[in-house]
Fold:
Amino acid sequence: MYDTKRVESIVGQDDIKISARKVQVYYGDKHAIKDVDVDILDKTVTAFIGPSGCGKSTFLRCINRMNDTIPIARIEGQIKLDGEDIYDKRVDPVQLRARVGMVFQKPNPFPKSIYDNVAYGARIHGLARNKAELDEIIEKSLRGAALWNEVKDRLNEPGTGLSGGQQQRLCIARAVATSPEVLLMDEPCSALDPIATGQVEELIDQLRQEFSVVIVTHSMQQAARVSQKTAFFHLGNLVEYGDTDDIFTKPRDTRTEAYISGRIG
Amino acid sequence: MYDTKRVESIVGQDDIKISARKVQVYYGDKHAIKDVDVDILDKTVTAFIGPSGCGKSTFLRCINRMNDTIPIARIEGQIKLDGEDIYDKRVDPVQLRARVGMVFQKPNPFPKSIYDNVAYGARIHGLARNKAELDEIIEKSLRGAALWNEVKDRLNEPGTGLSGGQQQRLCIARAVATSPEVLLMDEPCSALDPIATGQVEELIDQLRQEFSVVIVTHSMQQAARVSQKTAFFHLGNLVEYGDTDDIFTKPRDTRTEAYISGRIG
Amino acid sequence: MTDATAHNAPAAAPARPKSLLTQDARTKRRNAAEKRFRTYGAVAICLAIAALVMLLTSVLGNGASSFFQTYAKIEVTLDPEVLDPKGNRDPAEMSKITTIGYGNLMKQAFPASLQAAGVSTEGVPEKEIGDMLSKEAPAQLRNRVLNNPDLLGETISFWALANGRIDGYLKDRVTMTSAERDGNVSPEQLQLADRMMEADLLEKRFNWDFITFPDASELRPEAAGLGVAIIGSAYMMLIVLFLALPIGVAASIYLEEFAPQNRLTDLIEVNISNLAAVPSIVFGILGLAVFINYAGLPASAPIVGGLVLTLMTLPTIIISTRAALKAVPPSIRDAALGVGASKMQSVFHHVLPLAMPGILTGTILGLAQALGETAPLLLIGMVAFVRDYPSWPVDGLFEPASALPVQVYNFTTRGDPAFVERASGAIIVLLVFLLCMNLLAIYLRRKFERRW
Amino acid sequence: ARDNVQTAGSSTVLPYATIVAEAFGENFDFPTPVVESGGSGAGRKKLCEGVGENTIDIANSSSRIKQSDIDLCAENGVTEIMEVRIGYDGIVFASDIDGADFAFTPADWFNALAKDIVVDGEVKANDNATWADVNADLPAQEILAFVPGTKHGTREVFDEKVILAGCEESGAMEVFAEQNGGDEDKAEEMCTALRTDGVSVDIDGDYTETLARIDANKNAIGVFGLSFYENNMDKLKVATMSGVTPSTESIASGEYPVSRPLFFYVKNAHLDVIPGLQEYIEFFVSDDIAGPNGPLASYGLVSDPELAATQEMVANRTPMGPLE
Amino acid sequence: MSIGLLLLIVVGLGVIGYILGRRRALASVAGDPRKLHSLPSQYGQSVFLFTVVPALLLLIVWLLAAPSVIDGQVRGTVTTDGVSQSEIDLKMADVGRISDGLGALMAANDMSEDDLTALTPGDSDLRGQLAAVGVAVGADVEPAVFEAAKHKRSLTNSAGLIRTVLILLVALAGLAYAMTRIRPDFRARNVSEAVVKALLLGSSLIAILTTVGIVLSLIFETMHFFRLYPAKDFFLSLTWNPQFRGGSDLGVWPLIWGTLYVSFIALLVAVPIGLLAAIYLAEYATKRVRSVAKPLIEILAGIPTIVYGLFALITVGPMLRDYFAQPLGLGNSSSSVMTAGLVMGIMLIPFVSSLSDDIINSVPQSMRDGSYGLGATKSESIKQVILPAALPGVVGAVLLAASRAIGETMIVVLGAGAAAKLSMNPFEAMTTVTVKIVSQLTGDTEFASPETLVAFALGLTLFVFTLGLNVLALYIVRKYREQYE
Ligand SMILES: Nc1ncnc2c1ncn2[C@@H]1O[C@H](COP(=O)(O)OP(=O)(O)OP(=O)(O)O)[C@@H](O)[C@H]1O
Ligand SMILES: Nc1ncnc2c1ncn2[C@@H]1O[C@H](COP(=O)(O)OP(=O)(O)OP(=O)(O)O)[C@@H](O)[C@H]1O
Ligand SMILES: [Mg+2]
Ligand SMILES: [Mg+2]
Ligand SMILES: O=P([O-])([O-])[O-]
Structure:
């Protein structure tokens, strides 16, 4: 377990967008996240890496309280967004989620047209004053997610009739269209070809200019390419957290090293 | 479009497990697969690569007639398994699917226990004479899919309560447990970490000793690692098909080359 | 893929409050809408439950008293001269003495037995004293004697059913003022009843007879029970359950999973929803024509009632089952087909269990409807006065029987006000019956419910 | 083979039939007869469906059998039918017990409920609002009448013995006939056409419904059977008709004008076949049951003065002749 | 042999077939089920089905056909020239009863076949004897009829014997045939599934048969009605006013209007309340609240409608009159469309709520997650994602409720009255088609009069009318259906 003091030394307190302390997650009896402390910086891409089943998605879902929807999930500890405890009684998870957007691991387009899928968030948050603005947001988001060319002629067809990778990009576009301050992306490129992956990575890089992005990925290369910070999870523990370069070049924990070099999974 | 004669010259007729000729697939008006000719060899791993939305999954679903379940899908042309037309009126798609197994792109475990998920195929095909045999099949399949260690203590918990990558491996185990002659795997490692990926690749290699495996992947590296043959799809066309080594080292089509070198997607 | 990346800048961030703890106007509005919506839902539930409570309290308030009945104690000397004039104790001979004879005997014995117990009968004519007993009482006595001729000659003490008006007096339905106007009871009788109560000769007891006795005529509301109706309803529900559920589910499976998309399927589909809209009495017409006139099944019998109700319930079950099947995501079917399950196996192993809650709901609604329906029974002869209990199945299915809703309906159409409480009492029994019937379904539904 | 008697038909006869069936079942070794309700017309139809054990034995009816029924019977092989008149049913007019007293004549009812009435020799649409408008001797209470719906046999009697009689009595009939060029049928039709402005409310349900409606509308007057009224004397106040208070006596003597005979019809082919059938019908018309002191009378049936003739007819199984 | 026993034997053979088939399948591959095309139990199943199904089908056909075949044989013997068809029908009915009676007579009196042949209608009181065993004969027995009855009896007897033998043979043949077919590559699963599928299809055809039955049982009397009463008046007249002495106006429109109006108001109550309740139960309520509230609300569907009717008559009607109709100057009728509609709406709540709740509950969680993840509130997710996804089921529920509304009688009788009127005022008394079907059918009028027969025409009209509505509903659902995943 790495110690909290170090985290604070890495980053100036001001830049911290999200800070988690002693987070525990239980699914029924199963202890899925153990005592995780982490600070996620503003205007930074943070990568969560770690073997399958180690708790990356679980932790991600804690950050915008999506775990609330799993009846058996129980969360302890503290997570702050801009210094405010998001599990505070007074916090409205809806407002939180508007600020902390999410792309899920399994693409889940709505049974609506492609257009309506992307327009959904913008509509409920009132981001467009009129149809033209909405159209613009949709085009921009779909372009950002590298989907525009493929679907521009079939915006009125159902989103569920897309290919796997297209659905994944649709979900990215859908999340981007709501302009969240923090975007949580759970393996957003898992079903994408290298080119599309590159485009999405470019999008992530742009988003970073203004916002904070957390991305879960199994590709070390991708983590190295897009992220500035990397957190390595293993069996529910946050084993190591630091600058991406450091993690990949001089990991301090043996487990990290083993994982990066392909020895543990 | 590459020409059929060449296909035949590559492989001796005897080894052909699946041969497709002039396959067309339409979703309503959309022409998703255009005039595809391909021969898939026995005891070989064939990789399908190509940009997202190019028709890989669609073609894969044709091979075990899963497209039958999409009302708007229409298939033309001919696909033969061991020389028999699988779209023949007399062919029982159920029997076909028992021989040609499939792992879907989106993990879709049954809302049943992990055990029952894996046992299902073995049960309906009568592969086990008793509980002990069944247990054995299940353990072997889960081990093969690199999931055994993670789930051996929770075989009675629902398969839907697993992490994304775990679900994916569960689906692989479920397909393997029915011992199909041909296994179609649609991006089976997309949600897996490198280690798990390695283990699944090892499984694929083992399966190849006896059976034929078709794998869709977005990772050129993976294709190069596991497959002997590679087919490159683009916008519904099969652009190039050949030995994996050849495709990656000396592609004959400019589009293939562009894709491999990361220029088109 | 050549999307110009220059356009990729995200949409301008909307002005949002910096703090999570304060809400901006829009969020407030949305949260208010949320709260409103939630409140609507809660209000809807409350409305439904309030309506239920209102109906149930009125039913319970009116009907609870039917589970209690007033009995009067009477000492009768069973005079062999009167009851067995031939003196040979032959039941066949003795049965020649009708209830009228026994009635006269009791009428004579009752004032005497009151006086013997020290209750003054002053001011009440003898005939009116006798009228305080139920007309059923002589029948009770007669049965007792015929079953045990040795009683002849003895003086037995006997709790006899009291007349409906006296019973009503103990249940506050009849008052002194109403008695003054009423030609069927006099205030003097009520006063006598008061005196009898003081002497413990009149008391209210729990009324098992209400559940076990058959119906009675208008002259003896106090003896009317639901026994035959309960048996009849039970038989019919058995038939409905064993026919409508499997047939309905089978039909739904065919239509939803196997039927090719064509005109015939559309026709069947429209047909079924249309059958749901066919008034239940039309099913009665059908039942009369097909089951009784064509197939020659007996009228007034649970078998015909059960078949008619089955046909009537089928659309309800089919519509809900189909809706439930439709709601199962296709990926589950794909998963099963992908490991080589046949369509049939994928349906029976995976889809059907997931659709179970909807199927059970349809069954609950269908059975509720079938249990409460009278109109179709009217035409097949089950809206009838039946006193004899049908025997055990299978024979019993072919013998005349009544049904609970029929009994409710009959009770409500009768002139004597004492039947009002019995109608409500019958409704209570019907609801308990329904609840018992549905308990298993409700339990199973909870068990099968899951999200994915 | 069926071993119980099955009867069906009139809901008016039903209470009497059940009383008899109950007493029969309890005193004889035969099973208790099954008594269906469902209406006189439906009962007669069932009777005429044919001969055999899945057809009924007896149809109860609150009106005489019609020629079309007899034809249907004959067509289905039911040739011998016995017509048994069991007594008379009085029809009374009653209002809430706490309301005003009423003394009606048929003309009052006609003038209160008919669609068109005659005022000073002129036909005009009825706009009487209170009973006092109709007849100054009646209370000034709003007119609201619950009359049996057209499905009920009682309505026929009401039309004939009250409205039509009132129409004639008040002289309106002549004016109507005159207006229609002497066509009596047309005139009768005009007489029996009731107001549709909500003053006259048809009741398709039973007397209990009428009672409940009076409970909800205290100023209303309803039409009831005598027996129903006698069972609910603490809630209803009966009105006199042409000065006569309805009672079994006044109806039996013919003083009270509004009454009708009740019947049942027996399928002779079933006699001796269905066990207990003959015994049941003999029991039904016996003095012990249908006589003036029997249970039926005590429930409100007006005993038939010619009961003895009926008993003899039943004993001889005399089928009915053609309708006159 | 009785049919019940025969059935039992056939099913017993089937079970034996199952066991044998399963065993033989296993034996054919030396106990290794993996070498079989299908599961061993599926082989057993196929033998079972081959044994039972053809035999049962034959039995059904036999039961349907045999009587008319025998009838035709016997009919010839009673047919004489110049006798009308209906008279022959009557005689045939007698023949049937007597031949049944002879059987009963033999059983009751210990008679032998010889005694029976000796029996003639003349020599004893045959009618009396038959009556003694409970067989009613309309008149004394004619010799021709008696002979025909005897003929029929012997035919029936031998037919019964043939039936038993034939069916057992078919069952055995099926068993044997299925057994010979068992080889490792025999497609047992496909065969038994084909049979099961046929059974499923058969079940769905029951709905069609029911419809055919309904139409047939209505159409003849409807035609009879239109012979007595002009169709033009029925469909075009705007008054409904049946009379006893004829001259009734039987225009259907006031009734259709009343039906639509009452159902509309009922749905106006039931659909919003039911849907909101369903949403609350599925999305907001805790598990406990849900598990209590849902069955509670379902009780509303089980309360006999007469209770609702009385509630309408005694409580709701006067209340609406006193607080709405009279102050608003909309009349002072205590029975009204509004009363019946409101109360009926309450009854229909569970039809909408329970079914919708099940359907909403089965919308995949990933849909909700997707919406919440974008910062949507629960209600927004429900309105914009979940309900559209659940639409087909919800429409089904609403249709079911509408159907009940159209078919309801008691509430309308007591709540809305019996007067047929064409009026827009919801506080007026009106009535519906269904109510009039019941009242005309169970009334005191003679059966063959238009006043009674109109019930059948009303039934058929309503049937056609709702058919139209359902076609419309199907079309709408098709258009808006959204499939998730
Ligand atoms: N059910 C469907 N209805 C309509 N169009 C479809 C459907 N499924 C796929 N398509 C379209 O067909 C094309 C090929 O889809 P397919 O799923 O085969 O792509 P893919 O190569 O598997 O892509 P990916 O790598 O993203 O999974 C895509 O353009 C897709 O939008
Ligand atoms: N709903 C659930 N119920 C019970 N256990 C769960 C649930 N979801 C996840 N888990 C368990 O919690 C652990 C962490 O799961 P999580 O989904 O966070 O893994 P992950 O790191 O995202 O893995 P992957 O890379 O495979 O998606 C796993 O062991 C998983 O089985
Ligand atoms: Mg995950
Ligand atoms: Mg794909
Ligand atoms: O039921 P009734 O025929 O007597 O009106």
Notes: Chain C has two domains: 69-207, 227-448. Residues 1-13 of chain C have pLDDT under 50 and may be disordered. The first helix of chain C runs from residue 25 to 63. Chain C touches chain D at residues 95, 98-100, 135, 139, 142, 174, 178-179, 181-184, 215-220, 292-293, 296-300, 378-379, 381-388, 400, 410, 412-417 (CB under 8 Å).
